[in-house]
Every structure is written in C-alpha cells, then in structure tokens.
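pls ignore typos typing on phone
iron/sulfur cluster + seq
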Amino acid sequence: MPDPRVTAERLADLLGELCPSRGIALAGAVTLPCPLPHAAAFHGWLAAERHAGLAYLARDPAARVDPTVQRPWARALLVFAQRYAAGWSADDRSPWDGAAPGRPWTDGVARYARGRDYHDLLLDDVKGVIDGLRERLGPFRAHAAVDTGPYLEREYAWLAGLGFFGRNSCLIHERLGSGLFLGVAAVGLAVDGLPAAGASAADPLWGATPRTTAVSAPRAAAPGPASRCGSCRLCQDACPTGALDTPFVLDANRCLSTWTIEWHGRLPTGKEARQGGRLFGCDICQAVCPWNRRAARAGGAVRPEYGVDPAHAEVSLADLLEIDPEEFRRRFRRSPLWRAQPDGLRRNAATVAANGGRSSEAPW
Ligand code: B12
Ligand code: SF4
Ligand code: SF4
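k done
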C-alpha cells in the first residue's frame, strides 16, 4: 500500500483543526531523512561525556540523528509543543529560593514537574492528533514519543520552525518563551511542499503565534530560526553551577537538573550548597530569560494539570525527609517526581533542609 500524501498547506489546516482542543500550541514537520545541522555537536557532546552518564543518550547515536535507522518507513517527523509555563515573571522567587523557609516545598520543584507527568499527557495528545490525521487522510504508520524516544527533539523542533536555540540550550518561541514540552511522531506520511531536507522552516506549520494557518514558502537552504539571544548572556551568568559555560551547550554533569532528577546515590560532595532550595529540577536559566519575562507579560493558557498538584500541600518538607516507598508511590505515581524514587527525593529534601534559607551563592 503506498504511503498517503498530503500537501504542507493541507497538513497545516488539519493541524490547526486538531491541535487546539489538545492544548498543543505549535506544530510543524520535517521531511525524513534529514541531515541535522548539529549532529556533529551531538556526537562531540557525547564524546566529551557531557551527557553525565545518562546511558540511554549514548546507546544508539546514529538512530538519534536519523529516525529512519530504526524506522525506515518514516517519511516525515511531526513535531509538537505544549505549554507548561506561561513564562517566568521577575517577581517569581521560586526559581532562586526554591523551598526556602516560609515557602511551600513545591516552590523547590521546577515548574515542569509540579503537576501531572507530561510524558503521559502530551503523548496522549500527540496520539490523538495522529488518530485525527488518519481519519482524514487514511491509514499510515506512526511512532509517537515524548522525551523517551530516540529523537533529538529540540533539533527537530528548531528545524520545524517551532523556535530558536537559546544560550541555555532551550528551544524558545518568540512569544511563548521556553516553557514548552516537545513531542514528536515519526510518520509514514509523505508531506509535499516542506522545506527541502536539511533546510529548516522559518515558522511552524501551525501555531498560536505568530501565524495561524500559514505555511512558509519552501526555501532552499534557509537557516533554522536564528538565535534571538543577541548579546544577552543572563542565563550563563545566573547558572549556579557553571553548566552553561559553553553557550548553547549544556554540560549535564554540572546541571542541578541532572543532580536532583537523574542521579542516584550521593551528589558531588562539597557542592550541595549550590542546590540551595531546589528540590527537583531547576528553572534558573529559564527564569532569567527575557523571552520568558515577555511571555509572562503576554500571559495565555497552560494545561491546568501542569499546575501545582493540590494534594502536594498535604505533605511537608519534613514528611519528604522520611517518605517511605508506599507513601511515595501513593503520592507521586503520576507525577514527574516519580523519577527521583523515594531515595532520591529523601536525599534532595535533606539537602534542601540542610541548606535552609542559605543562598546557593556559596563558593563553588
Ligand atoms: C537528557 C535530557 C536532559 C538532561 C540533559 C540536558 C541536555 N541539554 O541534553 C538534563 C537532566 C540536564 C535535562 C534538563 C532539563 N530538561 Co531535559 N531533556 C533531555 C532529553 C531526554 C534529551 C536531550 C538530548 O538529546 N541532549 C543532547 C544534546 C546535545 O541536545 P540538546 O540539549 O537538544 O542540545 C542541542 C543544542 O546544544 C544544539 N547546539 C549545539 N551546539 C550549538 C551551537 C549553536 C550556535 C546553536 C544555536 C545550537 C547548538 O544542538 C544540540 C542538538 O540539537 C530531552 C528530550 C529529547 N528526547 O530530546 C529533554 C528536554 C530537552 N528537556 C526538557 C526540559 C523541560 C528540561 C528542563 C527545563 C527541566 C528542568 N526544569 O529541570 C532542564 C533544562 C536544562 C537546560 N538548560 O537544558 C525539554 C526541553 C523543552 C525546551 N523548550 O527546550 C525536553 C525537550 C523534554 C520534552 N520532551 O519536552 N534534560
Ligand atoms: S537548569 Fe539550573 S543548573 Fe541546569 S543549566 Fe539551567 S541554571 Fe544551570
Ligand atoms: S537568558 Fe539571554 S542568552 Fe539566555 S537564552 Fe535567554 S535571551 Fe538567550
């Protein structure tokens, strides 16, 4: 059976029809296979061991830069973005102070992790859009993934025109900021009229802003949306651990997000003060970003399930210090905090409690 075909214009219309009810703010597509402009940077990042022992990232690098290695039937990669934070405002102290005395412990949790787990919610939404496309275009194969699939999601989102790379390495949309989850779907659907493989789109196929249902004219070798950082380096200067010393590239060994989410056992000894009141994840390099300040001023809707889970108010930081596996399962099974497991959460809570009220600006 031949792959169904669709023009980029028709796909843009269909995405405009299917995405809003699923809280998807931006959607685009890239033709596969597609040479990635930052493939060498990815391989160099792995070779320099900047992936901090996250073994899954190094498992099959060839597949991560070319989805057709594992899925030869894939003709395009659809890319989606869903908002989890409508920016960060200048008076939001939680990214800096975290769970400081007199503040709820949830202030020490990065915004992406305060409510329901996005892996489940966004994946369902992406699959829902794929089902809608199948109803309208006929059957085609698809593999949807949020985070856990072998896809360099930011790279594809950039190529699909969903945003630009910031010096904090995040994918930033000019109006929505970087409080965006990304999801992808490799599809056996031929899309005619996308920018040629290896070139990028200036705008998403569909997006809340700046356009609604418009498709950029295909361009021969257009760059991805150019970085809009200009001379700013606020995120690099604000990072408490120096993880962004190389602009646009994150050293995961030094990132508080790795320490508090991914690593088990002891954290780098002598560096605990750098964690300050941050219990799980870190938002500092996003909170200082002028594009997120601007997004906060513009406002807009975020899926309510990503707000602070009200049930979290039932436990205190002191409770977390002693949480047992059963209680942990009951409370956090559907939360991103699940990834830390009880040991990790207890360890993080102990560090935050020990740091209580002390600034994270202690000598490095
Ligand atoms: C592993 C991982 C982590 C690790 C390592 C992060 C990293 N930068 O690799 C840790 C645990 C530290 C982490 C932290 C966070 N993560 Co994370 N993470 C991932 C994951 C699973 C893989 C990332 C990966 O492939 N890294 C490899 C590196 C090389 O790729 P990259 O980070 O995209 O880097 C690109 C740039 O460096 C660019 N590049 C290289 N050189 C140059 C030079 C120039 C000039 C330019 C312009 C670009 C450029 O090329 C690289 C490849 O595209 C992705 C999901 C996925 N499957 O992609 C989520 C993902 C990147 N994470 C996400 C989030 C939300 C976070 C946090 C905000 C969570 C938090 N609050 O604690 C932080 C942000 C930290 C930061 N400043 O990046 C989102 C990012 C959304 C967005 N808008 O960007 C993703 C996409 C998950 C999702 N599905 O939504 N994460
Ligand atoms: S998430 Fe925090 S520790 Fe990691 S790079 Fe950003 S500011 Fe630095
Ligand atoms: S804080 Fe400044 S340098 Fe960092 S991503 Fe935002 S605009 Fe770019």
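The chain has a mean pLDDT of 91. The longest helix spans residues 118-137. more later
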